[in-house]
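Reviewers of the previous submission asked for a worked example of the structure-prediction workflow described in the proposal, so we include one complete record here. The input consisted solely of the amino acid sequence. No template or homolog information was supplied to the procedure at any stage.
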Amino acid sequence: MEFILKAVIGGIVIAGVVTAAQRGNPTLGALILGIPLGSVVSLIFMYYAGVDLKVFQQLAQETIYFVLVSLVFFPLFVITLNHWNFWLSLLSSISVTMIALLFLKHFLESN
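From that input alone, the workflow returned the following structure tokens.
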């Protein structure tokens, strides 16, 4: 039941973003996408599951790092869209972002 609730909440967020953008309001879609709803819902589920506070602290701290690095995706995607088609822009932006995230993951695990 918990998994289904999480999936429904995630689906609602995605549907809200896509619907807002399709209806001519990409700013609202970006706002919905920018709100850390997934993080908040995850923290609530973790709290009710009895997760230790140290885990919350580590999760929150490392999320800051991963979010900052993942922001590489958006400017890169916008820039490449001016020169390449959608799919190539998307693939290249995801690839560069994933490489950056893997480097960060390696760095965090080595410390």
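Residues 52-111 form one domain. We consider this example representative of the routine output the project will generate in years two and three.
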